[in-house]
Amino acid sequence: MPDPRLLVVRLGSLGDIVHTFPAVAAVRESFPSADIVWLTHPRWVELVASSSLASQIWSVDSRDLSSVREVVRKIRAVRWDAAIDYQGLWKAAFLPFFGRVPRRIGFSSDTIREIGVPILYTDRVVCKTTHIADQNGELSVCSGSSHPVAPFSLAACSQAETQVRDHLSKLGFSRYIVLSPGGGWRSKCWPAEHFGALCQKIRAELSLPCVINYGPGEESLAERVRSASGDANPAAYDGELGPLMALLRGAQCIVGGDTGPLHLAVALGTPAVALFGPTDPARNGPYSAPGRGPALLAPRNEGLRPMSAGSFVSPAVPAHDIVLRSPNATTTYGRSDETDPSLLELSVDSVFAAVKQRLGVSA
Fold it and tell me: For the domain bounded by 158-359, which CATH number is listed?
């Protein structure tokens, strides 16, 4: 029996695509000769390509009617064995539906956030796992994969690596730590002033400079971190995806919240200190570095070892991932313009202690 022709749907965003890679890697490992076509937003074509998991990558902008019409036409022109929708939103699910793919695999209503989406699927998977990467893996198994997840690797552009290395060399940076203060929702972001104070401690006590990574619309946030850093004088960086991958791969460590750059850094094998508040690390936390298997996160409020007052680290995660979350945190996934109170309980000293622990620096 020939390997299948599969349509993979995951339009965005950065962290979500990274958490889809292990599941698609399992499909690729199970069916080495499968024709896997990945649908994604034009912004993320380079990211998907860096995994080498897809035979073809088709871009589509769900907000552009002409783009949608074109990709639906292309889908209808191919005979598919199945489509796997790892996104679970209307804007993704309707593409294989209107593309007339006969078998459409997706999450059941128990998992999907948008009401009614599963009606577009022929196969609705009731998930038994917690982490989104493992849940994606359950869709892969439904498609015929022999296992849910598999290791993968990402290839950064050598030109981008040279560009970043030269840029940092001019700043006098050889070893550095990346701070990623953004995260889309203000409620899941540790305060900029705390990042600034952390930057000062890292520079003063570890003699390591910091690079503030920020994205579009986060210019003022980066400036607040830099201002609060005083004479630690961090560099600010807002490069495109290729240079960002090179920056993250070369870092000694990354400190950030539940945000795409943090998950990308973990996928690249960079040590991480993750700061969580209203989102649950058991579902959305750092998952794994290539080839090391999934990160095993302790259930919230269970088996957490205090590092200092108000801050906790899960002892069950691999050495490359440290997750800090207050025991008072409540999982809401609520988007607001105010920092979640539980994040304010993560002190600068406790985060700095986690950085030293990850770097293997004795107290």
Answer: 3.40.50.2000
